[in-house]
Amino acid sequence: MKLYSRKYLAMAAGISVAVFVILGIIFGFVTLPFFNSNSQRYNNELFNNQGTDSTNLELANNDYIDISDISEDEKENIRIYKVLNEAVVNITSVSYGYNWFLEPVPQAGTGSGSIIDQQGHVITNYHVVKDAEQLFITLSDGTEYEGSIVGVDPENDLAVIKFDPKGKQLMTIPLGNSSTLLVGQKVLAIGNPFGLERTLTTGIVSGVGRPIKLNSTYVIREMIQTDASINPGNSGGPLLNSKGEMIGINTIIYSPSGGSVGIGFAVPIDIAKRVIPELIQSGKVNRGWIDIVPVQLFPALVDYAKLPVKQGILISEVTTGGDASRAGLKGGDKNKAVRYRRSVIYLGGDIIVEVDNLAITSLADLYAALEDNKPGEVVSVKAVRNGTSKTFSVKLVSRSQFFN
Predict the structure, then answer these.
(1) Contact yes or no for 170/120 (Cβ under 8 A)
(2) Exposed, middle or buried by CB within 10 Å (0-12, 13-18, 19+), for 325?
(3) 328 and 392 in contact (C-beta within 8 Å)?
(4) 71 confidence band (pLDDT: 50, 70, 90)
(5) From the CB of residue 18, how many other CB atoms can be counted at a distance below 10 Å?
(6) What torsion do the CA atoms of 140, 120, 114, 123 make, to the nearest 10 degrees?
(7) By C-alpha distance, which of 302, 315, 396, 403 is closest to 356?
(8) What is the mean predicted confidence (pLDDT) over 163-183?
């Protein structure tokens, strides 16, 4: 019988364990704990951003599935969703009404939003949070936070809200560029339609620069049209390009039935990037305005006053000594006052038909033409006076002087 020392036995046991581990790694029944570091997981799970080499996808339970038969386009969709759905939040806005017994009754609405920084700022639609008395923001892991409104921009249907992440590391949405979008480009929408959280839909850019009337007051001129399915609850969520960059905020759909029929519209991200810093800093956007009392022309007024044009903005009054008056614009005659409903209109003033080469046919057009102008800037105003067109250079005042 051959005897072995303890040292020899320990060495033999160590070699056996090492061989077992190596074979386990080769055949897949042993996984080293340090193998899946964050950077390694990012490269493997998400196909290294270019997404063409990986053949396995890690599931939530740490199992892997073979994705070698999935097309490159599908891999791209999976990669974008797997990363960026964590940056999309579900927003619940709560307001209170009263029943017959004067008891408060909560009324809740839902929408979507995108986390844009580590401080917990979220970009969404104004109509998602309008009139909200309480806001609740739910992250992808189910964590719910109470939120607050930081700033709103009704003209572009945008709002910035905020929650306190309490030191939690947040996934944020990268902001892209909407000025170079082309019809036919692939887009993806992530949101919470009908309360179904983390829903992904895909489509293309169907049109750009669409002027969409939000209501009787506001028109957004540069809306992105898409056929990616957008439904109630998607409002405020991101519209993404194939790089995973947000190029729009899903806002409105055209639908006779209330559901998606392949015609949706998103606010361009370039508009959002322009107003977000101001919303965070001051809670509103300070825009320029022509210091006049405007009246949108309507058929009865055109016929009664025998006006030379049928569409435009009649200047009922100009601010005495104001910038519009100094520029040469003329208001109506106090001796030619007419009453229309609850308003008094002074006839005889100039009729604005164009601002900075944009046709003005309504008040909504005037708002839209001045949407990206600041107080102190000078705009070109074309007006009709006694049947003759004249052009004036008008310095803008702050719109907040005239509207709250």
Answers:
(1) yes
(2) middle
(3) yes
(4) confident
(5) 10
(6) 150
(7) 396
(8) 94
Given a cut of 70, whether residue 236 has pLDDT beyond it is yes
Q: Do 93 and 108 touch, CB atoms closer than 8 A? A: yes
- How many residues are listed for the chain in this entry? 404
Nearest residue to 314 (alpha-carbon basis) of 337, 292, 296: 296
Q: What is the pLDDT of residues 135-165, one digit of tens each?
A: 999 999 999 999 999 999 999 999 999 999 9
Tokens in use for 208?
Answer: 């750009």
Q: Containing H/E element for 6?
A: helix 6-27
Q: What percent of the chain has pLDDT over 90?
A: 58
Q: Are 146 and 134 in contact (CB under 8 A)?
A: yes
The single-letter code of the amino acid at 266 is A
Residue with tokens 């000025």: 179
β-pairing, 264-268 with 88-98? unpaired
DSSP, res 261: -
- Burial class of residue 82 (count of CB atoms within 10 Å of its CB; 0-12, 13-18, 19+): middle
pLDDT in tens, 247-293: 999 998 776 655 556 688 999 999 999 999 999 999 999 999 999 99
* Dihedral sign from CA coordinates of 146, 95, 115, 35: positive
CA 157/CA 367 separation, integer angstroms:
13
The backbone region for 176, taken as left when phi is positive above 0, alpha when psi lies in -120 to 50, beta otherwise, is beta
Handedness of CA 216, 221, 226, 229 (dihedral sign): negative
Domains of the chain as residue ranges with CATH:
6-86 (no CATH), 88-162 (2.40.10.10), 186-275 (2.40.10.10), 288-401 (2.30.42.10)
Q: Quick one: the chain helix, strand, coil %, rounded to 5? A: 25, 35, 40
Distance (Å, rounded) from C-alpha 147 to C-alpha 119?
12
Enumerate long-range contacts of 41-45, CB under 8 Å, 24 or more apart. Answer: 45/82
User: Reduced to 3 states, what is the DSSP secondary structure of residue 115?
Assistant: strand
Closest to 135 measured CA to CA, from 156, 116, 101, 108: 108
Active site residues: 127, 157, 235
d(CA 144, CA 157): 24
Average pLDDT score over residue span 184-191: 94
Residue 178 and residue 248 in contact, taking contact as beta carbons nearer than 8 Å:
yes
Model confidence, pTM: 0.75
d(CA 88, CA 81): 10
